[in-house]
Amino acid sequence: MKHPMAKILYFANLVDKLGSSSEEISLPTSITDVRALLAWLRGRGGHWETALMEHMVQVTVNRQFAALETSLNNTSEIAIVPVRPG
Predict the structure, then answer these.
(1) Is 28 exposed, middle or buried, given 0-12, 13-18 or 19+ CB atoms closer than 10 A?
(2) What is the DSSP letter of 3?
(3) Which of 80, 86, 84 is nearest to 10 (CA)?
(4) How wide is the angle at C-alpha 62 spanned by C-alphas 66 and 84, nearest 5°?
(5) Residue 2's pLDDT is what?
(6) Do the strands 77-82 and 6-10 form a parallel or antiparallel pair, or are they unpaired?
(7) pLDDT confidence of residue 86
(8) How far, in Å, are 19, 45, 46, 66, 86 from residue 61 at the CA level?
(9) pLDDT, position 68
(10) DSSP string covering 37-55
(11) Do 14 and 47 meet the contact criterion of CB atoms below 8 Å apart?
(12) pLDDT digits 0-9 by tens, 26-76
């Protein structure tokens, strides 16, 4: 039986910066909300660290705009979109 995996979608200039438009990933048990996910992804270093700062992205979970405290699990569809500079 296949284990559920979270789907992460990247949009706009994140595709170029991160070299991917999407990935399916089994989230570590420590990743329970959007804030933890972004911190974990930034831990990859390089462009991940600079492109995924909390103030630079908007996140949706299951097609609903999400706060940093929004819960996640391995059935979530997560979209990360860059915030346009104000």
Answers:
(1) exposed
(2) P
(3) 80
(4) 45
(5) 75
(6) parallel
(7) 61
(8) 21, 23, 25, 6, 24
(9) 97
(10) HHHHHHTT-THHHHHT-GG
(11) no
(12) 999 999 999 999 999 999 999 999 999 999 999 999 999 999 999 999 999
Burial category of 13 from C-beta neighbours within 10 Å (exposed 0-12, middle 13-18, buried 19 and up): exposed
Residues shown for the chain: 86
Phi, psi angles (nearest 5°) of residue 69: -90, -5
The one-letter amino acid code at 40 reads W
Which DSSP symbol is given to 12? Answer: T
The residue behind tokens 């700062």 is 53
**How many angstroms separate the CA atoms of 66 and 58, rounded?**
8
- Could you tell me which of 67, 14, 13 has the C-alpha nearest to residue 41? 14
How far apart CA 21 and CA 82 sit, in angstroms, is 13
